[in-house]
Design goal:
Number of strands: 0
Order of helices and strands: HHHHHHHHH
Distance between the termini: 66 Å
Structural class: mainly alpha
Shape: elongated
Length: about 200
Amino acid sequence: MPNPRRTQRERRDQAEAALLTAAAELVVEHGVRSLTLARVGERAGYSRGIVTHHFGAKQALVERLARATQAGFVPGLEDLPPGLDRLLRLIDGYVGELGRIGVFNRAFLLLWAEAATRPELASIFRERDAAFRADLREDVEAGIADGTIDPGADPAEVAVAVVGQLRGIALQRLLDPEAVATAQLRHTVTDSWRRALSRPR
């Protein structure tokens, strides 16, 4: 029985997924400076015209890659209400996922590190980190409101500290995988935040 013909949307989604995968691989193998629309198309098996049609320019491609690589990094949180439980699950899941870090996550971390010295990346990653911190602030605020988090905790400061710790662990894992035992570390980090944030009995 012949396979049904794919819709235009399905073909577009497949092409975009292949192009983003190719872009992530190039970043991991050669750095962001190697990233051009032509090289991405060649790696993915598409013409440069197809890449241009999807993204327009390199900046738009990098922005889409940043969003794709960060989306859904910790699965299973979408339906959880904000609060201490969601915050701790995010921390535990984030460190746990670093144990099986793939090409998309590696690309995100490399791009994030380069954003400090590349203005064209800085705006993209400021936005992504701001969104990450906003979610964490929401968790702390909800936990204070429901009595599970110490009211003395500052939501903005906690958000900055959590992002800093998670990103720092991720970069260490990227540079020296053998030195970062994520299976145990996930519990250590999560427990330390539980103790730091939980409201005293």
